[in-house]
Design goal:
18% helix, 461 residues, six-stranded mixed β-sheet, Leucine-rich repeat, LRR (right-handed beta-alpha superhelix), alpha/beta, 8 helices, seven-stranded mixed β-sheet, LRRCT domain-containing protein, repeat, signal, Cys-rich_flank_reg_C, Leu-rich_rpt
Length: 461
């Protein structure tokens, strides 16, 4: 017992020295080196005022070459500042920074990016652009700043870009006050017709909704009557316009210019196709809206369109000329709508269509569905999916092509009591409305798919 007590006391005396060694761990040269290494790794996420340190492991931005131009794509990377130019294998001509978390663009943010011709900063949280932020960008022709939180922007910020031809500023809460006078003057110069189009004042209330190009800059810096507050002007209250205008594509959609012109109009609450679709757009996403009726000439300006996504719109009807003019369309997505059939002639302009998505629609298998099948037979290069009967119950789940084939083999129920043979031989019905109707129904089916007609030879002698 005394021996065990002695051992226990000895252990108690050793504990403080062990604890002291633990606390002192890291004081030697080796431990100091380990600490420096750890600090360097921890510092990899820190970013400087003008951008991240060179040793920072950046999010995986992609580098690519399109038509001889070098692109850097840093979209959707959660960046909070501009990466330095030394990060990339060579100097980019197009820099895509859309959909990040950038709040401020600091002076000198683009030092080393002198070769840039386009810069996409849309859909960030930018509320401040410092006056020398774009210093050195003498070759820049396109700057996209739409869909941010900018209230003011100095004309000084644009001076380093003498070749700027396209400037997008819409969907920002512009405060049309004296601070904006010089910028608005610049935007209204006739030669700057593509700078700041569609951008509108958010305040004061008196100017809310007015385009920057229509604001009188001479009035912005005039001292206002202290008895009249522009925010609550009792003399000129802002009243909603009684006229309902068609939504504008530029302000309703996100537009991406590089490497090809694309528009993302999805989830915008649209009830119709917006007006003013650019002629050179090649891709439009109108999915997840409420466009129930596709009207004639909705896409008349989109002559270069290659891909059109109209899925998830609860669409019920497509007018005959709704897709007219889309001669270069390659992909069309009509899935997950409320289409029961497609009217005759809707698809006639789609000469180069290669992919057609039709699933998730309540296709009704009756005579109205035949046009779709006939058109697909005439265009065997079109890969289609989802063309399945939803009703009537006896055909639910059946492929529409199979239904049409069986329809042509059997006597259709809707014509069993039509007395067709009598109509064709009764002279009293010739040249009547009934005969004309029959001819129109025959014309609905392409001539080369009609069954050969049988003729009876009658000897007159």
């Amino acid at each position: 017992m005394p021996a065990s007590l002695f051992i226990a006391l000895h252990l108690l005396l050793l504990l403080p020295s062990i604890e002291m060694k633990r606390q002192g761990k890291g004081r030697g040269p080796k431990a100091i080196r380990q600490k420096l290494t750890l600090d360097r790794v921890r510092g990899a996420g820190r970013q400087s005022r003008s951008g991240p340190f060179r040793l920072v492991a950046l999010p995986e931005c992609s580098e690519s070459t399109e038509s001889g131009d070098f692109f850097v794509d840093c979209q959707d990377r959660n960046l909070i500042s501009i990466p330095t130019s030394q990060t990339w294998s060579k100097k980019p001509r197009h820099f895509l920074l859309a959909r990040n978390q950038i709040k401020v663009v600091r002076d000198g943010a683009f030092v080393g990016y002198e070769s840039l011709t386009s810069l996409d900063l849309q859909q960030n949280h930018i509320s401040l652009v410092e006056e020398e932020a774009f210093q050195g960008l003498t070759h820049l022709t396109t700057l996209l700043l739409q869909h941010n939180r900018l209230g003011t922007l100095s004309e000084e910020a644009l001076i380093p870009m003498p070749n700027l031809r396209y400037l997008r500023l819409y969907d920002n809460p512009w405060n049309c006050s004296c601070q904006m006078e010089s910028l608005i003057h610049t935007l209204q110069v006739p030669s700057n017709r593509n700078l700041g189009n569609h951008a509108r004042c958010a305040k004061p209330v008196k100017l809310k909704g007015t385009k920057l190009k229509q604001v009188d800059p001479e009035l912005l810096c005039k001292e206002s009557d202290p008895t009249t507050d522009l925010e609550t002007d009792p003399i000129n209250p802002v009243e909603p316009s009684p006229l309902r205008s068609k939504p504008d594509a530029i302000s309703s959609c996100h537009t991406y210019l590089f490497p090809q012109v694309q528009m993302d109009c999805s989830k915008q609450g649209l009830t119709e196709v917006p007006a003013g679709i650019p002629e050179d757009v090649v891709y439009i996403d109108l999915s997840h809206n409420s466009i129930r009726h596709l009207k004639a000439r909705d896409f008349q300006s989109a002559r270069s369109l290659r891909t059109l996504n109209l899925s998830n719109n609860n669409m019920e009807r497509m007018d005959t000329a709704s897709l007219s003019g889309l001669l270069h369309l390659r992909e069309l997505d009509l899935s997950d709508n409320s289409l029961r059939f497609v009217q005759y002639g809707v698809l006639e302009d789609l000469y180069f269509l290669s992919q057609l998505k039709l699933s998730g629609n309540p296709w009704v298998c009756n005579y109205s569905i035949h046009y779709m099948v006939y058109w697909l037979r005439l265009h065997p290069g079109v890969k289609h999916s989802g063309l399945v009967c939803h009703s009537p119950p006896e055909h639910t789940g059946e492929r529409v092509e199979k239904y049409v084939s069986s329809y042509n083999r059997e006597c259709p129920k809707d014509r069993q009591h039509s007395k067709t043979d009598q109509d064709q031989t009764d002279p009293e019905l010739w040249n009547t409305a009934m005969e004309v109707q029959g001819e129109l129904e025959e014309d609905l089916e392409p001539s080369n798919l009609r069954a050969p007609q049988q003729y009876e030879i009658i000897r007159l002698s």
